[in-house]
Amino acid sequence: ESKKSGRNCSTLFQDEMATEAAELLKLERDISSAIFKDEFFFVLQPLVSSVTMEVTSAEALIRWQRDDTVVPPNQFIPFLEESALIIDVGEKMLSKVCEFLAQMKSEKRLPNSFKIAVNISGKQLSEVNFIEKVTNVLRKYQIAGHYLEFEITESVALDNLKDTIKKINELKQIGISFSLDDFGTGYSSLSHLKDLPVDKLKIDRSFINDINVDKQDENLVKSIIQLAVNLGIVTVAEGVETVQQVNWLKENGNMLLQGYYFSRPILPNDFIEKYLAPSTEPLE
Ligand code: C2E
Ligand code: MG
Ligand code: MG
Ligand code: MG
């Protein structure tokens, strides 16, 4: 103790930095081996219609089983993005989702109108053979494209707008729909939205948060909903946590709601049990 308190600030700071660097190094090493050990899995969170209150689709969210703990994506996705490992991991995720869709289909728990949305990194989308990879995995699991939705963010889309638009349109031709994630947090939301052929627009949860708290945010959400209506795009409100938010959103439009109020992301098999009882809808 006395020895430690006697040391000067810069030494302490250096120690801390050294520890942090060591932890980062270990994290990076663990992430690479996690890919080989197949320690990534996904959970599903439902999207609910504000009109019928029925579950229409789900978002697949990646998790990492690191020893005894489940690590959330914000703690490893940035590393994957930096190192381009995100391409391998993203591909694997898509394959797992398609495999699960095939399982749902064989169990007769896959309604025709159901979709699973997968988050796609910009690095994946800008790969030259991305479309080929997607087509291959769909073929491998005998899954039609309309069961998939791809969530992209504005920054992804804007990296190479022309190429992105071309790819989105090609993937839409095979039935895959697109949704623009975290809308409102990007820098040039409005100007590029009209160029992007997306089907859905997900209002970032930071705006949903302050419904019933901040009139300005409420007005902003109203304008985004109006914007989507004008463009013929479906609105999704993400991060819906309270009944007050649900009621406000229901009053302000026909949209999809997603958030802890309805369900946290859960394991795929639990999702089936909870939301897709056999014979709720015409099945394929
Ligand atoms: P996102 O795509 O915007 O996903 C929504 C995030 O909000 C998820 O966090 C979800 O668990 C969380 N969330 C849902 N409802 C609520 C709520 O009511 N309140 C609050 N506070 N949070 C809520 P998660 O699972 O930690 O994922 C974080 C981000 O990681 C995602 O944001 C997405 O950008 C990225 N991500 C997740 N899975 C993948 C993946 O497979 N590939 C890629 N490239 N990125 C992924
Ligand atoms: Mg998303
Ligand atoms: Mg989002
Ligand atoms: Mg988000």
Automatic annotation (TrEMBL):
Outline the extent of the EAL domain.
24-279
Chain coiled-coil ranges: none
Full protein name? Signal transduction protein
Organism this protein belongs to: Glaciecola nitratireducens (strain JCM 12485 / KCTC 12276 / FR1064)
